[in-house]
Automatic annotation (TrEMBL):
One of its GO terms (biological process) is formaldehyde catabolic process. It is an enzyme of class 1 (oxidoreductase). One of its GO terms (molecular function) is zinc ion binding. Residues 212-343 form the Alcohol dehydrogenase-like C-terminal domain. Residues 40-170 form the Alcohol dehydrogenase-like N-terminal domain. It comes from Quercus lobata (Valley oak). PROSITE patterns: ADH_ZINC. The keyword Oxidoreductase applies. Homodimer. This is alcohol dehydrogenase. It comes from the Eukaryota.
Amino acid sequence: MDEKSSSETRGNPIRCRAAVNRKPGEPLVIEEVMVAPPMPHEVRIRIICTSLCHSDITFWKLKDFPGIFPRILGHEAIGVVESVGEDVDEVSEGDTVIPTFMPDCGDCVDCRSKKSNLCSKLPFKVSPWMPRHETSRFTDLKGEVLYHFLFVSSFSEYTVVDVAHVTKIDPSIPPNRACLLSCGVSTGVGAAWRTADVEKGSTVVIFGLGSIGLAVAEGARLCGATKIIGVDLNPDKFETGKKFGVTDFVNSGNCGDKSVSQVINEMTDGGADYCFECVGMASLVHEAYACCRKGWGKTIVLGVDKPGAKLSLSSFEVLHSGKSLMGSLFGGLKAKSDIPILLKKYLDKELQLDEFVTHEVRFDDINKAFDLLIEGNCLRCVIWMDKQVSS
C-alpha cells in the first residue's frame, strides 16, 4: 500500500495488508486487516522490510499452545514510526526503528544493570498479546482478533509495538541489513560478545551452523578467537562458515565409534574454552558441556528445544569440572545500547551483515521465503513490504 501521512492516520485505525497465519503449517494468506492506534507506551510502525527467522517457522507449524491462530508472525524487521501513544518520548513520528522481541525498559533493576538483559518490568514470554495491556491491535475485516507474535508481528505493513521493544537507529543504514539485528544476527554475535565474553586467542566450538551458529562465529571472530570449530551434519556448511571465521569442521554424522565431544577434546587438547549450542537439542547441550574445558570452560545454550525438554547432568561432573553452563536470550544484548554499537561496527566494515542475506523477495512472495528456509537454501531472506525485487 502507499505510505500514509501521519496527519491522516494518527489516532485512527489503519487498513493495510498483512500475511496471516490462519492454520498451522498452511501458507500464509495476504489479506487486508485493521491495525488499531497505539495505546499508552506503544508506537505504530510502518514496516519497511522484514526477514524470516526459524522461530517464525517453528510457531507457524505449532499446533498446540503457545501456537495460536489466526496470528501475524514475523519479528525481524525495520520500520518508521507512524504515530506514538501517550507517555512515549524516546521516539517520534518519522524515526527509523528496529523492533525486538526482548524488552529494554531502562527502568527496572535488570535493565539498569550491566549483568543482565532480562527485563523484570516486562518479562519476556511467548504471548499472543501486547505486553502491558494484554490485548491485540489487529483484527481482520470481519472483526475477528488476530494474535500478535513475540511482541513484534512484522508480517504486516503496519504493526504496533511497545516502546520498550523499539530501538531508534540511523536512517541511513540500508534497511535490508539493519533488520537482521532485530533477532538472529544479534543473538549469535551477542552470545559470543556479551554472554560468553570470548577472549582473544581462545578456542570456540559451535554446534549447528545455521544463521545463529554463523552469527556466533562472526561474534567470536570479532572477539579475536583463533580456533573456531563448526559442528554440523552438512559438510557444505563449512564453506559458508569460513566466511564468518570458522577454521575447522566436524561432521557430527561421521565420527565413527567416537562421540563428537571425544573428537573435539582430542582436537583441542582437553576441551574448548567456549561451546555454543545453536540447534535446540538436549543431547547436543550434553555434548557441548562434555567438550568444554574443565576449570574455566563456558557452555552457552542458544537453541530452542521442544517444550518440556530436560537436561541431565552428572552432579559429580558439575562439582568437579568447574565448568559453566548458561542460557543466552537475544545474545545477552541490551537492544537500545548494543544494537547501535553493532550497526556502527557494520558501517566501519568490522561486522559482516551482507553475507547473511542470500535472498530477497516481495511481500506477495512471502511463502517463497518459507520454502527457501525450510529447504535449507538460504541464511536470511529479506521480505520487502513495498518494493519490486528479484530473488
